[in-house]
Amino acid sequence: MSIWGKVIGGTAGFVIGGPLGALIGAGAGHLYDKARESAADTGDGDPTKQVGFTIAVIALGAKLAKADGVVTPDEIRAFRRVFKVAPEEASNVAKVFNLARKSTAGYEAYARQVSGMFASNPAVLEELLNCLFHIALADGVVHDDELTYLKNVSAIFGFSEADFARIREQNMGPDEADPYTVLGIPHDADDDTVKATYRKLVRENHPDALIAQGMPEEFVEIANDKLAAINAAYDRISAQRGIR
Questions:
Q1: Do 202 and 227 form a contact (C-beta atoms < 8 A)?
Q2: How far apart are CA 34 and CA 218, in angstroms?
Q3: Burial of 5 by CB count in 10 Å (0-12 exposed, 13-18 middle, 19+ buried)?
Q4: How far apart are CA 25 and CA 127, in angstroms?
Q5: How far apart are CA 242 and CA 125, in angstroms?
Q6: Average pLDDT over residues 137-165
Q7: Cα gap 108→120, rounded to integer Å
Q8: Whole-number Å distance between alpha carbons of 84 and 209
Q9: In whole angstroms, how far apart are CA 85 and each of 44, 90, 94, 106, 124?
Q10: Under a CB-based contact definition with an 8 Å cutoff, are residues 116 and 204 in contact?
Q11: Is residue 31 scored above 50 in pLDDT?
């Protein structure tokens, strides 16, 4: 069963609880047991975390889409395309998206809950922020209200302003981003620091490592984009400095 099937099937409501669980309700709770057995058989990570991550992307993505006052068709199409929503599940995912968009619960409650779920896995929370940036960029520009929203979510996740600056740069693309900010290092860092930081980021942000910590496989394309941004930043710095 795909992660979307687990979410829509009601695998999370009574298990996760809180505002994220309330979004879809208890539903057919027995499907959670099937998802858990499936994860044990295949060696996948904790299905509760996987489902929690997915509901958070839907909920926070829906609130983000409203941040500039308009939910555009481009944003909804980008959500379905980037996050690999199967055609047969699209209408149900859209239903949860719209429920979150209309919910009276503030985005802060969703952000705090998922932050608690992944308190020991900050790399996964960073990946969730990357997902939100993809939604914000669907219409080609991140509006000021959207940027404020993303910065506030980042702060709730426990990231510093420097962390947010790095995440923001990683999502701007290799042609525009400052490669040093992407790697989170000062411009006067020595070559050994550049190499060590790059290797650490590649290790922490490898899709396999993120999946092992609870990120569903359906979001691997976003993880690959981030890894590509890290590689591009290092390549630019290496070319400038003649690092081999």
A1: yes
A2: 19
A3: middle
A4: 25
A5: 34
A6: 90
A7: 19
A8: 20
A9: 19, 6, 10, 25, 20
A10: no
A11: no
Residue 58 vs residues 72, 114, 174, 195, 243: alpha-carbon distances, Å? 15, 12, 27, 36, 42
In this predicted model, which residue has the larger pLDDT, 155 or 139? 155
Phi-psi region of 49 (alpha: psi -120 to 50; beta: other; left: phi over 0): alpha
Scanning the structure block, which residue is given the tokens 């998206």? 97
The secondary structure of residue 175, as a DSSP letter, is: T
CA dist 243 and 240 (Å) reads: 8
Distance CA(103)–CA(140), nearest Å, equals 26
Entry field: residues in the chain? 244
The mean pLDDT of the chain is: 78
* Higher local confidence (pLDDT), 177 or 222: 222
pTM for this entry = 0.76
Tokens of 27: 């539903």
For residues 90 and 201, which has the higher predicted lDDT (pLDDT)?
201
State the Cα–Cα distance between residues 55 and 13, nearest whole angstrom. 10
Per-residue pLDDT tens for 162-177? 999 999 988 876 566 7
Closest by CA position to 96, among listed 120, 79, 72: 79
What range defines the domain where residue 167 resides? 3-241
Count of structural domains within the chain: 1
